Amino acid sequence: MKNIFTFILIAVTLSGCQDDIQTKIPAFQTIKNGDFEWVSTVSTVTSESSGVTTFTGFDGFGTITIQIPNLALGSYALGSGALAVASYFEEGSQYSTIYDGLGSIVYVSDGLISIDDIDETGAITGSFYFNAYNASGSDIVNFSDGILYKLPVTNQ
Q: How many structural domains is the chain composed of?
């Protein structure tokens, strides 16, 4: 009986160790290349008078930048030819959704950023994902399950 109680106590303790996004306010995070949890340590959102809004996050190694044409609720497509652009810069390598990949078939950059909420303080909550290539089209980086949570906006 004592072993069952110990097992239940351990199980309850471990299940309480989940990484909850609401404990990270504000948050800018994603999954890089399917297996690495990329979490921004420094995040900014700037909105220009023209409406162009830029999300920037830095995790100590690389920088994600996402730019949308105006700050409004809704979804914005990312990819070559789209008005919204996402890019990633790390250790001298730059990837962007403005570039497409090379190969026997055409590989295209793609993605989506959704602005789901702008609260009364102006903080933004949304989600994103994207595939971006380097300028030569020979290398790709993938970001999935991206979260923007209560990021404050600085107006310029």
A: 1
